[in-house]
Design a protein that fits this description.
de novo design (two linked rop proteins), two-stranded antiparallel ribbon, 71% helix
């Protein structure tokens, strides 16, 4: 795979995830219902406002916003072949890979909570899970080429 193409896919996926995370963070604190509150079984509101939507009082959606913003920032640096935070392109790709490993583990836990505790799926959370997988696969492919 072309390195530039892989990094662009990571960047685009991160930007999509930033907007989704931003919306979910807004909805977490808002009194209004989200557009994806479709039914009892498909409800971003049920999932996003549940006891499980926060870790140490911080919304999971806000944590994902920070992580994806960071990934977008370091990916842009890698695309420009510039060192950032003391990291070269190879280090940036490895960091993205390991951030996605942690994200996948957290996502699996949250999917379990959605399916077997809350009995409700958050459509936007599923979209974030897909972005995590795309970024993970791209980082894995880029690591394999080094």
């Amino acid at each position: 795979m072309n390195e530039k193409r892989g990094l662009n896919i990571i960047l685009i996926s991160s930007i999509i995830a930033i907007f989704v995370s931003l919306y979910l963070t807004y909805i977490h604190y808002s009194d209004t219902s989200s557009f994806c509150d479709i039914s009892q079984g498909l409800s971003c509101d049920i999932v996003n406002r549940s006891l499980y939507s926060e870790i140490f009082g911080i919304p999971v959606s806000f944590m994902s916003l920070v992580v994806f913003y960071f990934i977008a920032l370091i990916t842009m640096s890698a695309l420009r072949n510039k060192k950032i935070f003391g990291l070269y392109k190879k280090d940036i790709i490895n960091l993205i890979f390991w951030l996605m490993v942690i994200s996948i583990l957290l996502a699996l836990y949250l999917i379990y909570i959605e399916l077997f505790v809350l009995y409700s799926i958050c459509v936007l959370c599923v979209l974030l899970d897909i972005m995590i997988l795309i970024i993970f696969i791209m980082a894995m492919k880029l690591r394999g080429e080094k």
